[in-house]
Amino acid sequence: MILRMKAFDSTGLYFNRAADLMDLSENIRRLLLTPKREVQVQVSIERDNGEIATLIGYRVQHDDSRGPMKGGLRFHPDVDLDEVRSLAALMTWKTSVVNIPYGGAKGGIAVDPVSLSPRELELITRKFVDGIHDLIGPDIDIPAPDMGTNDKIMAWFMNQYAKYHGFNPACVTGKPVEMHGLPGREEATGRGVGILTFKLLSRLARKPNQTRVAIQGFGNVGSHAAKFLHEAEYRVVAVSDVTGGYYRAEGLDIPKMLRWALDHRGTLAGYKEAEQISNEALLELDVDLLVPAALGGVITKRNAAQIKAPVIIEAANAPVDCEADDALAERGAVVLPDILANSGGVTASYFEWVQNRQRYQWGISRVRQELDRVLTDAFEQVWQLSVERKVSLRTAAYIIGIGRVGRATVLGGII
Ligand code: GLU
How does residue 7 score in pLDDT terms, banded at 50, 70 and 90? Predict the structure, then answer.
């Protein structure tokens, strides 16, 4: 609970730091921070054993001044309204930093998807759509996968939405490729982490093959980031998942670990060709690059002094809280903020939505090329501003993100 509150507080604090430098008035801050709409719906199903289970589903629609609201749907036991609200605001700044024509939103259900059968998961998804279908849509708010959700869930989502509003694949992104999905969407967040890491390290004059990397998380984001960094000749020395951390000073055999996870229900349990360490120890390793790619709130005041990596890439949303961010900055560490670092996913979602609306399928090379272009442009703008204004990359990203949203809000007219 404390960690989640921290993540939420930190988003507001990061916003205010940038807003101070932009001389934004209290009234404008309040306008930009207040979500447009928050909904909470009952999601009740009959479980396989005949018992009734009642869950709560959330959707927070933060801002639509730059376009329809956009953001993932999270299935995780820790989900609550505070967390979803904070993640929705992050989406607004994220879509703005990469300059795609969206606002921000986020949804979630407090449930452990691992504890559910496929039938139960499908029922929960469909019931949630029943509760919110009138409030979302291709021009209103477009959900996507996030922690605990995947392309299959998005397929059920699209199918259930069609029962009310007719065929419209652009109502949700991150769908299976066979069902109006985008080749390259699944890898996009991890690939984006790789592209941006390369840009950042070139600026810092660090060579890939001399860079030892630790990645926390081996889910969709962490595993694709590991693959991409390994292929680009970085030395990935540690990765972790729910079963703990795996360390090998000479570098891990990432292709082998990816195959292992595929063959072992998505986890690294039982992988022997590495030293077993804890998830906490992974964060504190003496490496050149740390990539938190799992939960939020993992680097806080409690462990900030132990973090040795000089460069941190926030592949997860809100992994570093404000106090820890200050401590890291004092030591000269460079943090690539979440609203830029993991924006590859939503950028590819944008391509999927465009493709769905045009009824025209893109190939993987076009997706990768456009992803590279959008992320490179965003990185260069953030880097330049951080140099010009002598601020952190995070504050520069927030200034750009807030600036675009603020201008669109004023141009659209407030009254
Ligand atoms: N859940 C992802 C994020 O946090 C992707 C959102 C999307 O594709 O809309 O950025």
Answer: low
